[in-house]
Specification:
10 helices, Arc Repressor Mutant, subunit A, about 70% helix, about 0% strand, 2 domains, about 190 residues, Tetracycline Repressor, domain 2, mainly alpha
Amino acid sequence: MPSETPPRRSDATRSTILQAARERFAADGYDRATIRAIAADAGIDPSMVMRYYGSKEKLFGIAAEFDLRLPDLSALPRAEVGSTLARHLITVWEADETFLALLRAAVTNDVAATRMGEVFREQVAPTLTAVVSEPASAPTRAGLVVSQVLGMALTRYALRLPPLVAMSADDVVAWLGPTLQRYLTAPVPT
């Protein structure tokens, strides 16, 4: 009977560095996070971070991999699309520190902003295009949805505006859902 190959020590080291990087980028943002601080958090020498990831930029690119795990909105009743999307996003935001790191960094860093744009193009736009009533307006509608959800995320999780932080997830969905619904399904204004 073949035995399972145990994970290599290098795999564990990479994983430890990546977790430390995600936490450090989330706490400090891209510009203030340092390789030294990440290495200290991981309990290793900074040269090991460089050995495995090459540069802070490359490490951030990998640490900022973010899967929104968007639901299939086209399978829902049309009237539930906005609230379902809002509920899904707030659940993801509150469960994954990677998003916060990417959001904070994207405001001031070109690498992070590019990564955020990739998430939009690869994950958000195709999902939203599947539910819009007028396909020609899909890019505009997707952009409007993203402007709302990133605005909420930035003010609630990064800037921590007290009225938004105090809102329950249900309250956020109740306010945000109808706006997303309108952006996705209302007729294009003339």
